[in-house]
Amino acid sequence: MCLICDRIKMIQNGTNPYFVKELETGYVVIGDNQHFRGYTLFLYKHHGDKTELFHLVPTERARFLEEMTIVAEAVSKAFGAEKINYELLGMGDAHLHWHLFPRVSGDIENCGNNGRGPVWWYPMEKMYSNDNRPSEEQLADMKCRLLAELEKLI
Ligand SMILES: [Zn+2]
Fold first, then answer.
1. What is the pLDDT along the chain (154 residues), one digit of tens a residue?
2. How many Å lie between the centroid of ligand 1 and the Cα of residue 25?
3. What is the pLDDT of residue 1?
4. Continuous segment of H or E residues that includes residue 141
5. 138 half-sphere exposure, CB direction, 13 A CA radius
6. Are 96 and 61 in contact (CB under 8 A)?
């Protein structure tokens, strides 16, 4: 049971409302919660026993990293980031997936080091609050902006 594999199945069935675009090595999706406006994920297409970057053959790894970088640039342009934060974690679901957070000054309020620091210094209950789930209309707008920027770069 893997949440990322489930979400990919929904993309393949045409039932994932967050899906933006399929690339060669993965799928681009908007994050469920949008405290960090424009938060996007890039999900590697395969799971199995490939749960670390060093499990991928070099050509596949290079392609995956190159495509993630393109997604990051598109996210930055679409959502006006001052800085992109990149995370590849996998302690919840080991499936390779990048979290791309567009950051702007003040986005963690006064948390962290006087408002400076990583996204995970912002309280989890605020970050994952239902209050920051995009409406259908907001989601459609975000997908459209991101897709437009992606298509300029690919
Ligand atoms: Zn998986």
1. 899 999 999 999 999 999 999 999 999 999 999 999 999 999 999 998 999 999 999 999 999 999 999 999 999 999 999 999 999 999 999 999 999 999 999 999 999 999 999 999 999 999 999 999 999 999 999 999 999 999 999 9
2. 14
3. 83
4. helix 136-153
5. 12
6. no
- pTM attached to this predicted model: 0.96
- For residues 145 and 28, the answer to whether their CB atoms sit within 8 Å is no
For 22, 112, 125, 134, 147, the CA distances from 58, given in Å and listed in that order, are 21, 37, 38, 37, 28
Distance from the alpha carbon of residue 55 to the mean position of ligand 1, in angstroms: 15
Cβ–Cβ under 8 Å, residues 79 and 20: no
Cα 103 to middle of ligand 1, angstroms: 27
Q: Which helix (H) or strand (E) holds 118?
A: none
Q: Is 12 helix (H, G, I), strand (E, B) or coil?
A: helix
Predicted confidence at residue 16, as pLDDT, reads 98
Spacing, Cα 142 to ligand 1 middle (Å): 25
CATH number of the domain residue 109 falls in: 3.30.428.10
Instruction: Domain count for the chain, please give it.
Output: 1
- Its domain, for residue 23, covers 3-153
Contact present, 94 and 55 (Cβ < 8 Å): no
Centre of ligand 1 from the C-alpha of residue 111, in Å: 32
